[in-house]
């Protein structure tokens, strides 16, 4: 893991599509300092690296697959009513260049 | 209106005896909500509630929730009722569908009278970070103490006597902590027991629908309505739903209860310890076998950082849909990237953004082994340790917090054992999905404090049975913060 | 220097399920924007993904057809990135545990079979569609959430032709399994090519270039051939290949630079926590395979057993619809060879002439089968059958009805035929002698005369039989 700097965190924020102020970055560096130290302590707990990572709270066997039956779609005006810029039944964005 | 501070069963009987009508109850609750001084409400559903109560199906009369006014934390989707998760980024968002819990409550005849404040998008524990500012504790008229979060508005509304039931969500301790601070019963059932469909996700693998009542029986009544499989939530359990009120008052003779020594020791408040020890004695008198159990303190101290890493990582992904394009607030920009960046920069508060960076950074390929994956591994160790205890015991019993509601002016954060353990250990029940309930055990300086019981997964009946007996021991139930005149 | 191309393909196949990968929103193509969307597809807060059973069945069937090992636990991951067409800000995919692993398919190049290894097959969901105008873009969420299968080959192809053959085979598999339309032009089968060159005989891979947006088999082949020559020239002159993404320009038939690849994007994958792991039972997997629609190669065996030759079979199997049509007509019990001739001949030329596909062909299979049986039973002549067919193209009816309408009822009345025959024989005693002397063609003359007399309505086989019988009596 790299040493955490403001630059690294600024870039991480940019990838998350928001900006952070200098003060926010300063505070974040301090917070990271604590978190990284705590995680290092966790790394010293005996056996921690020998177990499998746990995603779900317990072995949940919900062996369910949805039947392939389509339901009635939502009315177009309804589905788009929360979008701020709608033209011809579609959401408008500044031109996407890609 | 005396009824709103009563239990669900008492209200139900009053309705059956025609002492009061659903319309009167709802009108009174809305009136109280309008005069709320705790900043508990995002939105009061006056028009919607009156319409619902006027069209209430009389066939539902026998349902215990029939005509009962309730509030819903504003991170649950409610059709045609604004829902913003107390975040500016969702200002103006009016969902076109309702959460499963909302549907179930409505089917049972409950009337939603308001959407309550929370820490922004449920990411906070103090009830101070919602876009409407601090939510106050009705027990503290000076407004110097927190009610705690993130389900702050729901806790405030029920403890102020506005409604007898309030839905919240619990990812770390977001119902069970405010329950401690507000003299309430806060239950978080097993992960998968109640459908999460419609709950704005914070950290999916830790998120639970949870709720507040003022006594344990009401908690069981509510679980009867809310529990059960929902095909819209792929993690919802097929496990059969029981009648959770049945046998709730059975004796707890010979039930084995474990007290984790290291957790109790991390609490410094002598009054809390005394009340806790008294309650333990009471449980013993009621026939339970209460024993002290020891746990690795390193593991207990690891709960909080593990929780932070996992919850922040999942949160950064769960909230990536908030980009201004499809719903919610939208800021202008020259390109779609600018629209997203401007919307998210302006829409999220600083705390949220910092948490997103922490989460995202933990997931990066070069960091994951030391942060996210390590946290997931540590989660397993923590869960294993508590599961081990519950192999021998019916429940784990500890103080729910270091004491009464802390001061608003305090920082909260520290690296002390008291902060890391007593103030934050409850997240173990989110990591393990175990059912967990907080209920009041004492008062100090006019403020309540509580203790917590946690049991094996899907063992809610047993948990509620022990909680009911504990309630009998303490005699603390149906607490409502009284307005000073 | 002599170079060898190293080519690997990534193919995305859009499934034609009824509902989407993780929502019950309907799947349909080419309809009004945003009319087939539900709350999950729009990523409204609180909506949750629930995987589609048919999509899993489809993935199992394709994996099986590609000889892959199938994972009995279905688990999904989130691929996190922001883009305008990605409603949730992440795509649900299978990064760590693809449902299918390690398989192959066999292509035939220059008469030789070659096995192409396949690394993985996984399920994921499609993004929404963007329509770009000169100063803004419009978003249509109909496509958002449509189930996809991604098939990643090993870098084992060496030429444009091999790549095109590989894609053609994949297309045949997914369409014969009813998994997808497999239409490249319409985007239901999308192909990205990874290509690098290395000196022949060496093992080390060269720098990889990705080619995107290839919308036909021909373009895949052309793009690869262009890219091989482009890279060869650069390498021959001592240059370096840049790691970049290119697209095929149809006008110039060249690949053009889209963007230079920088560091690989970190998608911050983690397990999708909304979907508890799904354990597939042995019965479920075996059932999906057992009930799987018949692949082209299996139909080929069947067609051969019906007596069709390789050439006819391959024409019928060139697309699933034609093959299905053949199978339907074949249910009528008509002679398979005759059916094949009709479909490859008259039906196909009608389709070509009108520029339509067999899906739009109006003649019901049972009617075509009936017509062929009329010919077989000598109830109508081939010529009459063609005339009836023309009428069926205008209005599809039971051919028997046309037989009556058009007055094609054959004279099968022995008495009537006998009187015509005796009249004819009486008038031509010399020809009877010729026939008896061995001049068989005399028979043809007599039949022709009888047909003339009956305006072609005489039953041909009955006529021949009676004619020979009467001649021998004299």
Describe the structure.
The complex is a heterotrimer of chains A (98), B (485) and C (474). Helix content of chain A is 37%, strand content 7%. Chain A is mainly alpha-helical and 98 residues long. Chain A has a two-stranded antiparallel sheet with strand order 1-2. In chain A, a hairpin with a 2-residue loop joins strand 1 (86-87) and strand 2. By secondary structure, chain B is an alpha/beta fold. Chain B has 17 helices and eleven strands. Chain C folds into three domains: 3-279, no CATH class; 294-405, no CATH class; 414-473, Arc Repressor Mutant, subunit A. Chain C has helices at residues 53-65, 160-176, 217-236, 282-290, 296-305, 310-316, 320-330, 336-354, 365-376, 382-394, 399-405, 414-427, 429-436, 441-453, 460-473, and strands at 3-14, 69-70, 73-74, 77-80, 90-93, 100-109, 112-125, 129-132, 136-140, 147-153, 189-199, 209-214, 244-249, 254-260, 270-271, 278-279. In chain C, the strands form four sheets. In chain C, strands 2-6-7-10-1-11-12-13-14 form a nine-stranded mixed beta sheet. A three-stranded antiparallel beta sheet of chain C has the order 5-4-15, with no helix packed on it. In chain C, strands 3-16 form a two-stranded antiparallel ribbon. In chain C, strand 12 (209-214), helix 3 (217-236) and strand 13 form a beta-alpha-beta unit. Chains A and B meet through helix 1, helix 2 and strand 2 of A and helix 10, helix 11, helix 12, helix 14 and helix 16 of B.
